[in-house]
Write a structure and sequence with these properties.
Elements (H helix, E strand, L loop, with lengths): L2 H22 L5 E6 L13 E9 L10 E4 L7 E4 L5 E6 L13 E7 L13 E2 L4 H10 L5 E3 L3 E6 L10 E5 L3
Parallel strand pairs: 9-10
Antiparallel strand pairs: 1-5, 2-3, 2-4, 2-6, 6-7, 8-9
Length: 177
């Protein structure tokens, strides 16, 4: 192996664990796109920047404080969005703290603060958050019970005690320790 190839190989192998670890982390953020118009329905001007507050609720209409799960300004930093052609914007909402489990329905409230600092009323109706296709499938991984078969014939079971006759290629997870 040539010296340069060997250095590249060593660097690649040494960074592999970091790449695997970073891939496994699930981002606690949501992409969100929208279109903003003025009161007459005309799209907002291009290249305009606005301050916005996003709020997650457990209710579509309630204004009770206990129905607020999270707000984007919890960290004291204002979120801004940039308006593009046709009043369109795209942003990332979050990161969400661990207390936001996404294990129940949530509704997103959006409030715009104009250039003068005046806050509009929260937009209505609130937008219900829904799952992406692969997230629906991932629910099965969160609630797996019994046998889980992996490609290659590996079977993982949870048992309170060792099996009387374990099969070759099975891994037993003890839950009674």
């Amino acid at each position: 192996m040539k010296p340069l190839s060997r250095i590249f190989f060593i660097l690649t192998i040494s960074y592999l664990p970091f790449a695997i670890c970073s891939y496994a982390a699930v981002p606690r953020e949501i992409s969100y796109q929208g279109r903003l118009t003025d009161s007459t329905g005309k799209p907002l001007a291009e290249d305009k920047k606005l301050t916005v507050t996003f709020t997650l609720y457990t209710s579509a209409t309630s204004t009770r404080g206990e129905d607020i799960v999270w707000t984007s300004n919890d960290d004291g930093v204002a979120d801004t969005i940039s308006i593009s052609k046709g009043g369109l914007f795209s942003t990332t909402i979050g990161p969400f703290p661990e207390k936001v489990k996404f294990d129940q329905p949530y509704w997103l409230g959006i409030q715009i603060i104009d250039e003068t600092g005046k806050a509009d009323k929260e937009m209505s109706p609130r937008q219900r958050l829904t799952s992406a296709g692969y997230a629906v499938r991932a629910e099965k991984a969160d609630a797996a019970e019994g046998k889980i078969k992996a490609t290659g014939g590996l079977t993982i079971e949870t048992k309170n005690s060792d099996p009387a006759s374990p099969e070759t290629g099975q891994l037993w997870l003890r839950t009674d320790l």
